[in-house]
Amino acid sequence: MDTIDRERDDLLVQHDRAWTAPVWATIVQYTVGFVKMDDYYTLFAQLDGEPDAIAIGNPVTTRFVQRGEQKLPVFTMTDHQ
Known about the structure:
This protein is mainly beta. The protein has a single domain, classed as CATH 2.40.50. Strands 1-5-6-4-3-2 form a 6-stranded mixed β-sheet, with no helix packed on it. The radius of gyration is 12 Å and the shape is globular.
């Protein structure tokens, strides 16, 4: 897994739990959400962490995981503001 090392101001803006996905069957159930990136884009992606720890408005960090032939972003809640 690769990790982005630079500081960002990405924020979680919406999330939900996913129950089925053929490509990601090994990790069902998982959380997905919309993340507002610090460069004004919004990205829909997987959120890593306990569901109770995931909250709208929290800052996140990004790492990339291999899913089949693709590397996809996964966001994790962080403490930094």
